[in-house]
Amino acid sequence: MPASPDAPKSLRDPALLEARRAMADAPHVRPLRAFARMIAAERCAAVPDPDPLDGGVAARLLLLLETPGPSIGRTGFVSRDNPTGTAANLFRFLAEAGIARRDTLIWNAVPWVIHAPGALNRAPRRAEASAATPYFAPLLALLPRLAAVVPAGRFAREASAPLAALRPELPVVAIPHPSPTYVCTAPAVRERILAGLAEAARHLAATP
């Protein structure tokens, strides 16, 4: 497997993006990619692939964002390497927390694209949240080594209850959304994100 990028936004490089796409059907992400394709067919909307540089079905930490943003159309991946401010912040926060990339899977609480083509992303509606809830059980079934879930942002945090109902023993550590819009509002936001990721890292360390 290629070395992980050492700086954010690497998928803005066409050559690196093409190399990542060539890995998209690697065995450790193939079941998740098939799951994404199934959701896309059922919802009649695009669902980005998991990043093959991440842990795939061997992930021990599920980092749950809210919805795929506009950059998904450019890369096709849910990735910390996407050319956005949110992804760049996530890249830095996960590195600072010392969470190994092979231990992570980044997914979305509503995994399909909800914004109109060319439009800015928007907050999910309650009906979309309800429609997404049944996909949590098959997602968790694909992640047998999961040791912690980190929902990022208010909307993703609402997934805590259905996740807890499915896996009561699974620690859920909520953090603020890593979007620059939130991170720049106050130094405390950054501190809360790092504190939450540090707590998640402790759960990983305590789980074989």
From TrEMBL:
InterPro entries: Uracil-DNA_glycosylase-like, Uracil-DNA_glycosylase-like_sf. This is Uracil-DNA glycosylase. The lineage of its organism: Bacteria, Pseudomonadati, Pseudomonadota, Alphaproteobacteria, Hyphomicrobiales. It holds the Pfam family UDG. It comes from Methylorubrum extorquens (Methylobacterium dichloromethanicum). Residues 59-183 form the Uracil-DNA glycosylase-like domain.
